[in-house]
Amino acid sequence: MVQIAKKKNIIAMFLVLLFLIFTIAPDGLAQRRRYRHRGPSKTKHIAVGTAAGAVGGALIGGKKGALIGAGAGAGTGYLVYRHKKRHHRRY
Q1: How far apart, in Å, are the Cα atoms of 89 and each of 47, 70, 72, 75, 82?
Q2: Alpha carbons 19 and 22: distance in angstroms, whole number
Q3: Element (H or E) spanning 74, and its range?
Q4: What global pTM score does this model have?
Q5: What is the DSSP string of 51-69?
Q6: 72 vs 54: CA distance, rounded Å
Q7: For the segment 1-57, what is each residue's pLDDT rounded down to a tens digit?
Q8: What is the largest CA-CA distance in the chain?
Q9: Which residues, 6 or more positions from 69, have their beta carbon under 8 angstroms from its beta carbon?
C-alpha cells in the first residue's frame, strides 16, 4: 500500500513539473508582430537642425547669429535626412 502511494506521489509531481514547464513557455514560441519599419522623418530632422543651429548661432552672434544659425541648421538637417533616406532605401 505504501509503495502505491509513493508511485502516485511521483507521478503527481512529474505531472506538476510538466505543467509548470509548459505554462512558462519562452517568448520565442509566441507569435511575433511584424512592424513595418518606417524611414526617417524629414520634419524631425529639419526641426532639430534648425533648433540646434539657432541656439548655437545665438550663443555665438546674438540675434543675427541665431537667424543665420537657424538657416544653416535647417539645411544641415535636410542633408542628414537625405543621407539617412538613401541609406534606408539601400537596405
Answers
A1: 22, 28, 26, 21, 11
A2: 5
A3: helix 42-90
A4: 0.52
A5: HHHHHHHHHHHHHHHHHHH
A6: 9
A7: 667 778 888 888 888 888 887 777 666 556 667 777 777 788 888 888 898 899 888
A8: 97
A9: 53, 54, 55, 56, 57, 58, 60, 61
